[in-house]
Amino acid sequence: MAASDIARSEVQVEAADALVDRAFSRITGSQPVGGNRLRLLRDAKENYPVWLEAIAGARHTIHFENYIFADDEAGRPFAEALIDRARAGVRVRVLYDWFGCFVYSRSRFWRRLAAAGVEVRAFNQPSPIAPFHALSRNHRKVITVDGRISFVSGLCIARSWVGVPGKTEPWRDTGVALEGPAVFDVESAFAETWAESGPPLPLGEVEARGLPVETSGGRVRVLKGRPGQLNTYRSDQLVAAAATRTLWLTDAYFVATTAFVQALTTAARDGVDVRLLVPGTSDVPLMQSLVQTNYRPLLESGIRVFEWNGPMLHAKTAVADGRWCRIGSTNLNLTSWLTNWELDVTIDDPAFAADMEAMFLEDIEGATEVVLKAHSPTGLSETGRGKARTMKRQGGRLAAGAVGLGSTARAAITNTRQLSATETQVVAKIGLSLLAIAFIAFALPGILIYPVVISLAWLGIWLIVRAWRLRDAHEAREGAREAREG
């Protein structure tokens, strides 16, 4: 190839990269920052000790945000470390999700932290004047210390992640340690969720963006998932569309939308090596059936699907084309994409991506590959370490061979695609269920009418209160703006 052709090719690659980068920025509302030191951390055995070490070395602030913070043998060392730093004069703030911690931590656990000087807040506790706020969960897993180092991961803090010796093995999960300018963006994300649960952080509490710590450090973009914004969903679709060679995904609760499955299958048919690693067994039994409904369209397009053979696989990661990675709390399903507060980081760094690829390949060594088999009852079989086995038909599966129940129902109503024999049975069950609901409503109308009336009244009151509060917040912002301008 002539030198001019090589130069032209390099210019084209740079132009394509710039286009994708600009699309990422517009979709996510975040900018990439370079000069960061990165460390890939696998499972609690690598994450927890580093977290505790950073907490023990805190001198100014600790911002600690997690969906589950359990009062058990995994959580108590963290509680003690936070209490120790608070008593030493460090500003320690803990934000936990009310629903996530409901069965894991009692009020005395939080009272003990607060009594030691830790600022503790629960995210979205139930409220009669804001009933629908409780549907939105803070699913983030973040720690920042002194504005110097941040940890972003899929790990909660509970017994499941460390296991019980002789009884249960630890859950599989992944995190990353960040040092450098990107820490400012993680701190800023914490400030947003902290303000959602009470007064905001004092002005100037979040330090300005720090200087690069590595001259050739990876470019990091912080993705702040918020209810209704679909930032991470659109970025995940963009990655599937932009990948040219490889796209390897690990996800704990894969129940993707039709559009996202189509993005993956289109990439695979275009020659991209798409692989998906999911749990072999789930801590949410119904979820496993939902995950498996996605298999057929993936497999038929050439995507390789693997089921983890160990205990629960809880990681949420992606690595594409040997350079782009994502680590964080977002699962590939609508709950994470649409209704939760999530936080992930994307990393554009070939060296870090090489570590991610090596970790993925190691993981699938301990997994079973699911493949199509023409003569099995379901058309699916599993191969891997040990004896291959044919998957049994699950009578309670909502939509075998479809992306999901909603997709099947929509296709039946709109006649937009041909349904399989299994989906036809599902459509019949949906019809029978609707007839049963109609009969109950006709025979006992109060069963449906009274809850609807109560819900409408409750919603009306909540909207009025919400409008009142929004007006007060708007007036407060206007007052602060006028005071600054005056």
What key attributes describe this structure?
17-stranded mixed beta sheet, alpha+beta, 15 helices, 486 residues, single chain
Tell me what the structure shows.
It is a single chain. Strand 9, helix 8 (258-269) and strand 10 form a beta-alpha-beta unit. This protein has a 17-stranded mixed β-sheet, with helices on both faces. The chain has 486 residues and is of the alpha+beta class. The longest helix has 40 residues, at 446-485. The protein has helices at residues 3-28, 43-56, 75-87, 107-115, 159-162, 182-196, 231-242, 258-269, 285-292, 295-300, 334-339, 350-365, 405-414, 421-443, 446-485, and strands at 33-42, 61-66, 91-97, 119-123, 141-145, 149-153, 174-179, 218-225, 246-250, 273-279, 304-308, 317-320, 324-328, 342-348, 367-372, 380-384, 389-390.
| Multimeric state | single chain
Report low-confidence residues grouped into runs of 5 or more. Answer: 385-403
Q: Termini, distance in Å?
A: 65 Å
Give the overall shape, derived from the CA principal axes.
globular
Q: The biggest beta sheet, please?
A: 17 strands, mixed
Sheet-strand content, in percent, reads 15-25%
Helix tally equals: 15
Q: Pairing-aware structural class of the strands and helices?
A: alpha+beta
Residues in helices, as a percent range: 40-55%
Question: Got a strand count?
Answer: 17
Radius of gyration: 24 Å
**Average pLDDT for all residues:** 84
